[in-house]
Amino acid sequence: MNLRGVGRVLGFLLLVTSCSLLLPLLVDLLYGEGDWEVFLLTAVGGALVGGCLMWLGHTRPALRHREGFAIVTLGWIAVGLLGAVPFLGTGVIPGPIDAVFESISGFTTTGSTIMTDIEGVAANHHAVIFWRSLIQWLGGMGIVVLALAILPLLGVGGMQLFRAEAPGPSPDRLTSRISATARLLWGVYVLITGMEVLALATIGGMPIFDSVCHALTTMATGGFSTLDSSVGGFRSGAVEWIITVFMFIAGVNFSLHYLALRGRLAVYGRDDEFRFYALVIVGATVLVSATLWPVHLFGGFEPTVRAAAFQVVSIATTTGYGTADYVLWPPFTHMILLLLMTVGGCAGSTGGGIKMMRVLLLLKHAHVEVQKLLHPRAVYTLWFNERPVTPALATNVLGFFMLFMVVFVAGTLLLTLAGRDIVTSVGAVAATLGNIGPGLGDVGPTCNYSFMSIAEKWLLMLLMLIGRLELYTVLILFMPATWRKI
Asked: Which pTM was predicted?
């Protein structure tokens, strides 16, 4: 393991994060609430630490896969710790563990919160609420991918980092240079975020501060809101439909968005994963709407469909916004939402979960196995987007699914061992491992995680990291061979 090389890139990531702290500093100066000193000192401190790490690793680092995994995982932990400082320094979150929990939840785009009076904080600490949204936006596309756009300045080859960070089993390279690919993805990300800000402010009538914060957390599929009651607190059908549309967009592979913006709109219809994603969303919305309609919870057809569509898209894309307490809905809807929690968005999106691509490949593989029972001598090939799936990728998908279920069951057992009921345990693990935020039981959409013990919070933070970084990236660091010198 080239620790100097790892340290040098970690230092660079801390410098990038420190620069981003200047944005909430400007927000505080705009509102005149006196928190700017905390953000300035945090930025300076983070820059000093980052500069020292870069100086200590001043030799040109040779990155291999193991260094890529280490940089991504340790980088997320480092920026998570730095991101917790403003919560502590401003007194918004007095406990260090809770501050780190909120920060890790933000950077991993999980959206699980320990804050109990968000609106009270927003009234006096606009910069803190903005920072809370910004860290989700940075984590959405990936602060590591952000660094890749200018990583050649360090003389570092970036493909190892991109493979370790980019969500999904096969990140698409839009250009021959990985740094150019990163810049293109971030350009699309910024553009669509700006479009949502404009739509929320003009069509939805949302205040500009709330529009910016919700656009940041929607495109990151993060789910942090400026209101305690989340998006439902705005009581606006227009706002809910706008956010539903942009959550759906955020759950799609951003490579498709880039190609569509270049005029190739047909790429959506030709992509197997997108078609499957749209089918799941529409099918789940129809089922939930049909289940809610007889119980008359929303007083009309359009409000019922809107509530169902919003919650289905929010959970399926792992955003975690809420407009209603779905814990009070019929039990059948709970099962649908729980399944959606584990599935997640498309590969190459900002969503978490197993990813639609993997689920589709698993279903295709199961279909092939059934066909082999009927025709044992026939030769079958798995196809995806008109290309044969390699045995290596098929094995990787099967291994990922099994590992995901092992971690899911282990996390649930540990929470039940701590005394939590089975519904809360399953809901909390699904919500954190899938990077969703709200779960079931005591961690439903109207609740938070502040009542959890310190040990439970550390466990859930680990699950957030494992889920956001696609399991292998984190778990491989627990193998002794990773750290041996070769």
From this structure: 0.90
